[in-house]
Amino acid sequence: MCSVLMTRLLLCSFFLLARNYVMSTEYRGKSLGTLNSYHHQVGGEVFAVNEYTLLISDFTFDGSANDAFFWAGASSRPGPQGFILANEYGRTDVLKRYLGKELKLTLPDNKKLTDINWFAIYDLSKNIAFGDVYVPEDFEPPVKQIIGDFTTKSHGVSSGPIEILDSKTIKIPMFSYNGAGKDTYFVVGNGPQPSAKGRKIPDESGYLDNLRTYLNETIILELVGDTTVFDIDWLSVYDIQSKENFGWVLIPDEPNVPPSLQKVADKIENIMHCVQLHKKLQLSWQVFGPQITIRLAGQIDEDNYMAFGFSGSEEAPQMLGADIAITYIDGFRGQAMDYNITEKSPCVKVLGQYKGVCRDTLVGGLDDNQVHTASRENGINVITYRRNLQSYDVGDKEFKTNTLNSMIWAIGRMNHQKEPSVHDYFPRSVLKLDLDPKPPIDTCYPFTVNTEPLKKDVWDQSKIIDSSLRMMTATLGPSGGKKGFQGLTGLPSPGLAWFINGYLIPEIWLKRGITYVIHIYGGNNPHSSQYYHPFVITDEPNGGYDGMTEVAQKHTRILAGVQYTLRRQARPTSAGPLCLRERKGFDRRLDDNFLSFKEFNKSLDMRCEPGDPAVLEFKPNSSWPDIVYYHSFVQSNMGWKLHIVDKFSTGRNSAAQVQFNWFLGLLFYLIFTRM
């Protein structure tokens, strides 16, 4: 009896292990089979990734042939009638030695897999196939699948025909939702219809917050961790609090779709509890005695920071009054700096007092975060630090174990001075964190890593090349996210940027020996760290002269916009009243949704304070470098390039364009002087 029971247990264990192995096998596409091996130790399995692409896994070839290539054709068997496929580097070189490698090959000239009958490793000089695989006559390569519209239940949920692009990616065209749900997310799960047993997936921007309002928008969702479309039965717009399905669509069984371009990384080890804050960010923590250990893991760029700490408000994600840690990796060393936020700007010295996002040590406090470990692997930063629940710094907030803590987080870029610039990702709602949940909580999942570089999409760079230009107008406005200032310059942004004659940080061509006038509306209140921006021209690309070290100031030449005291201290002269472009009520996280600067600019309103502009008059001369930069005197990374030339090239702009640029500058001046 015992032996029978033991046998059954062993069989159950075997089948469970086998099932788990099958489920964990990576989907590479639709298999064409293993390579038939004839010579030179050819081996591997061939998959169809899509209509145009093959993937060979575990490919081996001894590389000893002198004229071997990847070869394909439409004849009945491999022979001289065929064509070469470029290797994994896009070159048609003679094949080298391969040992258990995975490589992706694309058919040339937009040929499709349905156009060929076989694929081979072939010697052109000897007309011999060293290995081959055949394409079945009725073979259907993986392609995107259209699965129908959302079935509308309530809250204005609707869409166009939903597409499964690959094993982890779903495209929803013309998606609408009225945003009235209180705890609503994109949810996937198993079973005949949506239920509370489903699991949240990030929205199109990676957020796991309550869904915003959508109106006929095309969005792309990515399944997280090792989840694929083969693991789910439905996708829903689902309110977890009310357990209500607002709209849903069924996922067909085993859709014939391409594999994802993403690889699943190993899951980051938890300390005890773990919460997925964003698709790119995880928080893990443990309270032990009077201290808390915090681990932040983020899929971020090398120059990025991860921020976590107390919100300035108990009920909303508020920067002002926040107490946060800024974590980043400086070379091989991890940092977890203690910051307080008094203004929505990088830290600057205002009338002898530091304001903005400033280190505690600059405002009279203590930095009591202790870094334990820091690492970076596969594009993922993991930083672990510790601090007391009740800090010795009276300006720091207390981590409370007997009530919920109101927390915020952010991801952004460090600037050239190793200070945080404006954050790119931040929460829509405050995180209510229980430091001692029972049982332990874990909503984290493995990060996914792109196997191919992502294409950077930026707006067109505005250029003013006008030989008749003499007058310009400078105002302020939002920097435009990753498609705007950051994408155009490659530099982090404080959130504001200069608009010259209505263009976001245009490159401007100026001629030596000509006198130019700029009317400046950058704010003239020196008490404001956010809206005080005297205009200057220097020979270095970052700006923010007032916040530079003495060494950096000595190596910077200010060409226009300041006067020097008897002690050779620079004092700005061009600080006019504030004229500011502002978003018309929409979230700045949506800046990157605009396809062009023109479209983005139309969404902004202009607000101007009364008063005459500051007037900066200057004349470039032979001592000026060929490229100089316009900046804010107090904040870095707000302006861009001035090209200084001896003469304008003929034919670079038409007479109509010259007249338009002259008229535009005059128009801006007339508008602002009458406000």
Would you mind describing this structure in some detail?
Residues 29-136, 148-252 form the DM13 domain. This is Protein Skeletor, isoforms B/C. Keywords: Repeat, Signal. Residues 1-24 form the signal peptide. It holds the Pfam family DOMON. The structure is a single chain. This protein is mainly β. The protein folds into 4 domains: 30-134, no CATH class; 145-260, no CATH class; 273-450, Sandwich (Immunoglobulin-like), CATH 2.60.40; 463-645, Immunoglobulin-like (Sandwich), CATH 2.60.40. It is built from 5 helices and 49 strands. The termini are far apart. The model is unreliable at 1-24 and 651-659 (pLDDT under 50).
Q: Topology, pairings included?
A:
Elements: H1 2-24, E1 30-34, E2 36-37, E3 43-48, E4 53-61, E5 68-73, E6 83-85, E7 98-106, E8 118-123, E9 128-134, E10 145-148, E11 151-152, E12 162-166, E13 169-177, E14 184-189, E15 199-201, E16 214-222, E17 234-239, E18 244-250, E19 262-264, E20 273-278, E21 281-288, E22 291-299, E23 304-310, E24 323-330, E25 333-341, E26 348-350, E27 353-355, E28 357-359, E29 370-377, E30 380-388, E31 405-414, E32 420-425, E33 431-433, E34 448-450, E35 463-465, E36 471-478, H2 485-489, E37 496-500, E38 503-504, E39 507-511, E40 516-520, E41 535-538, H3 550-554, E42 558-560, E43 562-564, E44 570-572, E45 579-583, H4 597-602, E46 604-608, E47 614-618, E48 627-632, E49 641-645, H5 655-673
Parallel strand pairs: 35-39, 36-40, 39-49
Antiparallel strand pairs: 1-3, 2-9, 3-4, 4-7, 5-6, 5-8, 8-9, 10-12, 11-18, 12-13, 13-16, 14-15, 14-17, 17-18, 19-34, 20-21, 21-22, 22-30, 23-24, 23-31, 24-25, 25-28, 26-27, 29-30, 31-32, 31-33, 36-37, 37-38, 40-47, 41-42, 41-48, 43-44, 45-46, 48-49
